[in-house]
Predict the 3D structure of the following.
Amino acid sequence: MVLNRTCEFLITKSPEMLTIIAPVITIVEAQKENLNLGLGQCIAEMIAARIFNQKEGNNISTIYGAITSGTNWRFWQLQKQNIIIDLTEYYLNQIHLIMGILTASLTS
């Protein structure tokens, strides 16, 4: 499988901006404010993140991804060959929940 797109946003545990340390979380910008249009790209980026993590010697069982319009957020998980979908759409006024999910994704 060849994945050759440019990643839009990435969150990593790295304390330095120039170094990427696994695990990574992929974040996709929604196209036309439609979160569902970013699903394919988010899945591809989660697969790429898993490949990156494995190359770094971090065999992480769950890869996290998010799709956002900037004000609305949806979260996904890649576990083996399964995509787990959080059916809740989070809004910017729930920033404490969004930040909690992103933080928990890096520490799990």
The mean pLDDT is 82. The longest helix spans residues 39-55. The CA atoms of residues 77 and 83 lie 6 Å apart.
